[in-house]
Amino acid sequence: MWLALSFVVYVLLLLLKFGDPELDQVSVKLGFRYRLRGAGLPGRFYLDSFHFHFGKSGLDEHGSEHLINGRSFPLEMHLVFYNGKYYRFEYAKRQQNGLAVVAVLYKFGRENLGLESLMRNLPSLKYKGQSSPVSVDLAEFLPHGLQNYYRYKGSLTTPPCTQNVLWTVLEEPAELSPLQYKALSSSLFTTGPNEKPTHFLQNNYRPPQPLNGRTVSRYKE
């Protein structure tokens, strides 16, 4: 039996940050609470942050960490939730069933309103370690349909790659325009403002990994 996903929002405040101390990625750290509901989750999960993985500049179709029927996508968004019974993300990430990640894949098409709101902040986020407040509507990043998805138990795709993540990969991709992709993949440097050499943030995705015996379930309306 399929169970549709839904998001419940409580309060409002966002911080857009480029450059985790250990990772090269653009992330949005939340100062408000989105709760993930439905989809047979073992508890209440609250959104800690979301970030993006993508390929290189141009119309590169290889940037996603998940494939659907062998197809890769130029951009993948990860919404990272933690189990509310552990109160904080830093504690939950070390617990069994502590994390749930929703993966949103993007294909080339129409302009994405959510990404556009982030793009307006790129001039102030040119170098690693910089941050800026930003206001976004999470629904604008998502595809129209949330009822069809894939589910498996796996790990984080970034260090420390802990094996305590319940993955939900939305089957329907969202869209972004080629111009948005070009801006995202050719506007950010992987170094600080006073560091050299400078390189654009590109190809910050981990190639898809073998299943290694994992079961992937498909939920469809």
From TrEMBL:
Region span, Disordered: 195-221
InterPro entries tied to this protein: CA_dom (IPR001148), CA_dom_sf (IPR036398), Carbonic_anhydrase_a-class (IPR023561), Carbonic_anhydrase_a-class_CS (IPR018338)
Alpha-carbonic anhydrase domain ranges (all copies): 1-220
EC annotation from Swiss-Prot or TrEMBL: 4.2.1.1
Keywords for the protein's UniProt record, in alphabetical order: Lyase, Metal-binding, Signal, Zinc
Reactions it catalyzes: hydrogencarbonate + H(+) = CO2 + H2O
A Pfam family recorded for this sequence: Carb_anhydrase
Catalytic class of the enzyme: lyase
Domain of life of the source: Eukaryota
Molecular function in Gene Ontology: carbonate dehydratase activity; zinc ion binding
Protein's name according to its UniProt entry: Carbonic anhydrase
Stated family: Belongs to the alpha-carbonic anhydrase family.
Its job: Reversible hydration of carbon dioxide.
Cofactor list: Zn(2+)
Organism: Polypterus senegalus (Senegal bichir)
